[in-house]
Amino acid sequence: MNKILNRVPEITIYFWIIKVLATTVGETAADFLSATLHLGLGITSYIMSGVLLMALLNQFKLKRYVPASFWFVVVLISIVGTLITDRLVDELGVSLVTTTVIFSVSLLVVFALWYSNEKTLAMHSINTAKRELFYWVAVLFTFALGTATGDLLAESLGLGYAQSALIFGASIAIITIGYYYLWMNAVLAFWLAYILTRPLGASIGDLLSQSTTNGGFGFGTVGTSMLFLSIIVSLVIYLSLKQNKSALLPIDRQD
């Protein structure tokens, strides 16, 4: 019954694949809308925030995990999180170091409030509207924090997109080893990996989309966004069909 009522997916390999792809789309789509289409950061932020709000209202109304709705919100919140950081840095002149600190503290405050109210931060127990609200607020700050951290390493510190991606990928690998072999707390391991997949995806997105003169592969924001969105849609369709098939299976009776 808990699995049926849970509002977020189980943590599987598909979860992490789509999460990284969604973070990459968040980076490239934000650049495409604001720069390529010349909408600007302000207008793009207002439009995407409005779309996100509508998607969240639908998500809360469902009261359960539906792959299409859940991952649509993740992609949108990735875009909005990216735009929040970009606006602070590009329009207000806040440094990447400062934004990294601000979002780190903000995320810790969200976790503290969440835990003080619910006594757990575990993904498998997000089965009420209140817990889901804490979850999405935390996710938003992880995306904003990941954007700031990724840009800090790749641009401000001059490491480049490829080296930044390797650093974040190696960090996630260390956390994975800690969880499977060194008895690292499961909730801590999850959230650390969740935070780090954002700058990993952002670095990959910039590496693929940026021009060769800027250290990228020059595939452009359109090509990169469409490629990754296609993979996300394919995986979400697969997971939806799998979920529907599981729902049709007879429930074992117990004597």
From TrEMBL:
Instruction: Give the Gene Ontology MF terms in alphabetical order.
Output: structural constituent of ribosome
Q: Note the superkingdom of the native organism.
A: Bacteria
Q: Provide one Gene Ontology cellular component.
A: ribosome
Keyword DNA-binding appears in the UniProt entry: no
GO terms of biological process kind = translation
Q: Name one Pfam family in it.
A: DUF347
UniProt keywords (A-Z) are: Membrane, Transmembrane, Transmembrane helix
Annotated TM spans: 12-30, 36-58, 65-84, 96-114, 134-154, 160-181, 188-205, 217-241
Q: What is this protein called?
A: Integral membrane protein
Q: What is the scientific name of the source organism? A: Nostoc commune NIES-4072
